[in-house]
Sequence to fold (170 residues):
Amino acid sequence: MDIRIVEEKNVFKYRVSCIIIKDGKTMLVKMNSNDFLCCSGGHVHIGESAEEAVIRETKEETEIKAKGGRLIGIVENFYTNERIGKKFHELNFYYILDIEKIPAEKLKDYNFLEHDEGKLVDLKFQWIPLDKIDNYEIKPIALKKILQNLDAKFLHFIVRDEKIIEEKIM
Fold:
C-alpha cells in the first residue's frame, strides 16, 4: 500500500525518484500527456525503506536493475493541481542509482507501457545531456539544480508553486 493521504482538497505523497547517469546523460521520462520531463519513480509502500522503494520502482518502470544508490537530496514540493482542484504536499527522496547493467535497447530513447494499480501509464524515456538540461521543461523545478550538483553531499529544496523558496546545498 502506497504511503499517500488523500483528503477532500489535499493530498500528501511520500515518493522516491531515481537518477540514472550514463555517458554524461540522465534518463528522464515524460508520463502520459504531461508536457514536462521528470525522474522515474513512485510511491513508497508502508514498511518499505526509501532505498528499497527506488530500486523496486526503477525495475517496474524501466526494467533496469539497480544494486542500491546514494540519497542525494530531498525535495518538499507544494503545488496545486488545478485540473482536479487539489493541493499537493509531496516529499520526494532522490537517489543516484548504482546500475548493474543497462540493456542496449534502454540506452536510447524508448517507450514503455506500465501497468500501475490497474491503470496503463504511457512512459516516454529520454536520455538528456546533463549540460543541456536548461533547454528542457523539467519538474519539479529543483530537479534541474539536483542534476547540476551531482557531486554535492546532500541537497534539500522547498518548492512552492514552481518556485524554489529554500535551498541547501551541502
